[in-house]
């Protein structure tokens, strides 16, 4: 988790998110992941109208992953991240080890980001700990 995300362009967001995910120790080639994510974004941007982007490569990158990892970052200033003109300030990077994992993670994140309360909560977070707590509470509420 990064709060705040200090990136101002689509490319710097992608690179920063991949560097963040690599800190988990589960991904060891952030530049290769960034290239795969950039290629996917060029095909079709993953930014949603609600100000969230669900970044991911087109296919699992098993050669650079030990396991699936998800990164979250919140930008203090929304950025133009899609071609639609909508601004984006919450970024998730999904690095899945296989297609079934990718679909499970994407489905769960899609349900979570449909909760405007969680998104507003994340936008108000001033620290990594606050963001983690907000995300965990939303995840718990989803499971109840």
Tell me the total number of β-strands. 3
What spatial form do the alpha-carbon principal axes imply? globular
Order of helices and strands: HHEEEHHH
Radius of gyration based on Cα positions: 14 Å
Q: Please count the helical segments.
A: 5
Distance between the termini: 24 Å
| Biggest beta sheet summary | 3 strands, mixed
Give the mean pLDDT.
Answer: 95
Strand order, main sheet: write it out.
1-3-2
Binned strand content: 15-25%
Helix content estimate: 40-55%
Low-confidence spans: none
Structural class: alpha+beta
Question: Helix and strand layout, with pairings?
Answer:
Layout: H1 10-22, H2 30-43, E1 52-55, E2 69-80, E3 87-95, H3 99-113, H4 116-123, H5 128-143
Parallel strand pairs: 1-3
Antiparallel strand pairs: 2-3
What does this structure look like?
By secondary structure, this protein is of the alpha+beta class. The protein is built from 5 helices and 3 strands. It has helices spanning 10-22, 30-43, 99-113, 116-123, 128-143, and strands at 52-55, 69-80, 87-95. A hairpin with a 6-residue loop joins strand 2 (69-80) and strand 3.
